Protein: SsrA-binding protein
Amino acid sequence: MAKKKGKPSGNTIALNKRARHDYFIEETFEAGLVLQGWEVKSIRAGKVNLAESYVLLKDGEAFLFGCHITPLISASTHVVADPTRTRKLLLHNREIAQLFRGVEQQGYTVVALAMYWKQHRVKLEIGLAKGKKMHDKRATEKEREWNKAKERIMKRH
Structure:
């Protein structure tokens, strides 16, 4: 029986659905995030947007750009909160080296795919991705429509 796609599981904080639409995801990695206290409180409240975020690799480190975490009014009264500040990603050296190789040699980009809880820590799923062309997007959509039609036909019989 096919697994239905519904709401994300309880530990998922935010998804970047646009990334899977615009890119072929070749490989995924799990990264930790360096966060401030007010950011964790806002994440618990679900005030995160990954839509325009991407990962920049610089000086042997990885940073998350464009992730918007809206500060809570009650949580960030004593701190000047920057909702789109650059956040450092925690990865192993071999994973960072693999990302550098992909970006520099093969023309890939690194995008944020999902943010989720793993035990009591916030984790970010990042993907080594290659951009889709317009005809690739149409082919993906056509295949999705065909799969839906196939399921309908199989359900009737």
Summary: The CA atoms of residues 16 and 51 lie 5 Å apart. The first strand starts at residue 12 and ends at 15. Helices lie at 17-22, 37-44, 93-105, 134-156. Confidence is low (pLDDT under 50) at residues 1-8.
